[in-house]
Description:
By secondary structure, chain A is an alpha/beta fold.
Amino acid sequence: MISINAAGMDFISLNSILRETKEKKAVINNCEGQRYIGCAASGMDITVNGTPGNALGSYLNGGRITVHGNAQDAVGDTMNGGEIIIHGSAGDGIGLSQRGGEIYVRDSAGYRAGVHMKQYRDKTTVLVIGGSAGSFLGEYLAGGYIIVLGLTGDHCPISNFCAAGMHGGKIFVRGVLPPSLPRQVIAAEANAEDMSAVQPYIDKYCRYFGKDKDDILSKPFHMLTPDSKNPYKMLYVFN
Amino acid sequence: MEREGSIRIPAGCAIAGIISREGKRFSGDAIRRSMSMMHERSNGLGGGFAGYGIYPEYKDAYALHVFYDNIEAREACEKYLDSRFDIVNLSKIPVKKIRAITGEPLIWRYFVHPLPTRLADSQLDENEFTRRCVFRVNTSIEGAYVFSSGKNMGVFKAVGYPEDVAEFYQIGDYEGCCWTAHGRYPTNTPGWWGGAHPFSLLDMTVVHNGEISSYDANRRFIEMYGYTCTLKTDTEVITYILDYLVRKIGLDFTEASNVIAAPFWSTIASKDEREKQRLTYLRNMFASLLITGPFSILVGFNGGLMMLNDRLKLRSMVMGEKDDFVYFASEEAAIRAVEPAVENLYAPRGGEAVIVLTKGGASHAD
């Protein structure tokens, strides 16, 4: 295992150490916003203590990144595989264009989580958000699962323009839905069969963050799927 | 001094702010440290700082900070200022020569009061009188540019990385109750000294991360009211819009935010009747001042600070608190650089204005 004190270190040096090490396990302490940590890594187990910078785990191919703290913007941008586990909240654009792998956020995520997430061939693409998510969650969603658990309270855990332009994949929302959803979306209460598909990921969320599964499953989930008869057009023209 | 507008270069930027709610003064070194954590967000083509409460010894005088290309420009400008103002103090702004900052203009500071006779003749209030004089210098005295013109506050900016600009101006030697800062990554216009942020007019300053797409629609409207856009830079027009809405029209900052980052019609439709009417009125009344495209801004003024994101929240911004202080930055890491134990971290939503007032401050013009 390699242990790195990132205090005062620039992002190029930090990422060089991670790329060049023969160790499979790395712990980064005092992380101060260095960008691109774990970019395109595969088969490494990276633990970050502190605040990682933007584009954490972008193009991640495999292995695992665990953050003890909050993550900033664009976590897991275009990631292909592996896992990112955040013991805290995430900024905007988490899981942007994610096309494989799994991301678990203990608390909330900012705007544009999972925008244009997709699922390529045999890959499984998953984004689990424990709290609430900002506007444009799953915009242009093309594949994969986005699961929002709303553990922060009884209010609706998703916001404006959720799933706008969605044309594939599924979004699961625990608790109430907003008064209106974009016309491209069909929303219904998730049945047992629907839930069985995402059960393994909810299990993992509970295991990673020490949450009670029965408690989470005590509230009904809604499932959002695309309405292919009603494609997306001209959001920005009339608003 | 080469000005902007002749070429177009195809923004990432860094912004930060720190304010003491009690109005306690603290060194500018804190904001420098916050900015240096976001080094990658700038490219060395502009950095700057605004400090409030930094000139208590001249708190009733307008502090003019001026860039000059040459001595002739200085002489012409001083002759003009002498004819309009009582100059109670003038000096070069102290700077430290460092390798990272080169090609600096002459940089002068004047503490001035409008001449009572000229002011009375003009039939204007002293803010409007001073604003017009600032525009007169910037549009008609070749080689002179007033880049700061408020009372008991000052803007310090240059071409360079923000942490270098802080060293150049020795920002740590000033004490203010509120600071904002900007690191520039220009994408549409070349970097020049006047084009660095903050942009200011009287005591209002704007630091901006983003690139507004409504620039020309906004410019056409605001130029009808005597604001000449000399810089062809989007942030300049934001500054003038806010001066117009708050100082001239008398809106408070919340209302001004409802104009420039107006909620979507679909969002307005979901509000109660009274709120619906209020928001509809503001959108219709000032339709040309809706700012579209990505922006996150920090607006400083004597008495407080406003943070605002565009309604789609196309730029990042995080805020947090600790004791008396409220911190803002493009990245959480930049807040933790100054206050590792920051509490109540929050990323305001698109169009959600956050206004922090110092003790006794008001969110509208007096």
